[in-house]
Amino acid sequence: MNKANVLIIDDEAAIRKLLEITLESNEYVPLQAASAKEGLALAASHPPELVLLDLGLPDMSGHMVLQQLREWYTHPVIILSVQSSEEDIVKALDNGANDYLVKPFRTGELLARIRSALRANAMEGVDPTLRYGRLEIDLAAHSVRLDGEPVKLTATEYNLLALLARNEGKVLTHQYLLREVWGPGYISQSQYLRVFIAQLRKKIEHDPNRPEYILTESGVGYRFIGKE
């Protein structure tokens, strides 16, 4: 059983009810808040394993709530919002959101994102060998195998793949990837990222044109999906 506490911060009663039913039927424990103030107070008094956060709150911008949460809260935050602009999505992800779903969303997809975020959070601080179907990444040895055979990667290719895999299921923005792999002076050099993503796909994907591991989030960044 999951039994993870999930805090819903959303001013729409119908959305909160839908989420409550969905979470309870999948053995999560929902907590609810209808405003930013109530949500921040509840997060502090009963810290949940995950937060579902709406951006359009009546008393404070959801972006500000996220920033305040990230001053101390280290567990996953998933944004659920009608705001679908690239600017809002990138801003939320860069401010520390683990994922972003645009309303209306499919409950099956939401549950998959919740499972992925909780799984990735549980693995933080651990350097295991990550196994995803045909793909095996040994973070301690800095080595990669595909179907049991070594995959020859450059140092940059490995660093990029390891960063994506350690954040399985989470959308990593172009700017974040460029800053973490190449350094802050490269955050506008998106062509670097496109070239190295293409090279990685040629080496680990069964069909680079239809990737299963490294997925593109158009205009935002990339998401690594582990194949169990």
Structural description of this entry:
It contains eight helices and twelve strands. The chain is α/β, with parallel strands linked by helices. The chain folds into two domains: 5-122, Response regulator (Rossmann fold, 3-Layer(aba) Sandwich), CATH 3.40.50; 129-224, Orthogonal Bundle (Arc Repressor Mutant, subunit A), CATH 1.10.10. α6 (155-166) crosses α8. The chain starts with a strand and ends with a strand.
Topology readout:
Blueprint: E1 5-9, H1 13-25, E2 29-33, H2 36-45, E3 50-53, H3 62-69, E4 77-81, H4 86-94, E5 99-102, H5 107-122, E6 129-132, E7 135-138, E8 143-146, E9 149-150, H6 155-166, E10 171-173, H7 174-181, H8 190-204, E11 214-217, E12 221-224
Parallel strand pairs: 1-2, 1-3, 3-4, 4-5
Antiparallel strand pairs: 6-7, 7-8, 8-9, 10-12, 11-12
Helix pairs in contact: 6-8
Keywords:
2 domains; alpha/beta; 228 residues; Arc Repressor Mutant, subunit A; Rossmann fold; single chain; 8 helices; five-stranded parallel β-sheet
Number of strands: 12
Strand arrangement, major sheet: 2-1-3-4-5
CATH architecture of the largest domain, please? 3-Layer(aba) Sandwich
Strand content: 15-25%
Total tally of structural domains:
2
User: In angstroms, what is the radius of gyration?
Assistant: 18 Å
Shape: globular
SSE string:
EHEHEHEHEHEEEEHEHHEE
The helix count comes to 8
Which structural class do the helices and strands define? alpha/beta
Q: Return the CATH topology of the largest domain.
A: Rossmann fold
Whole-number mean pLDDT: 90
- Specify the biggest β-sheet: 5 strands, parallel
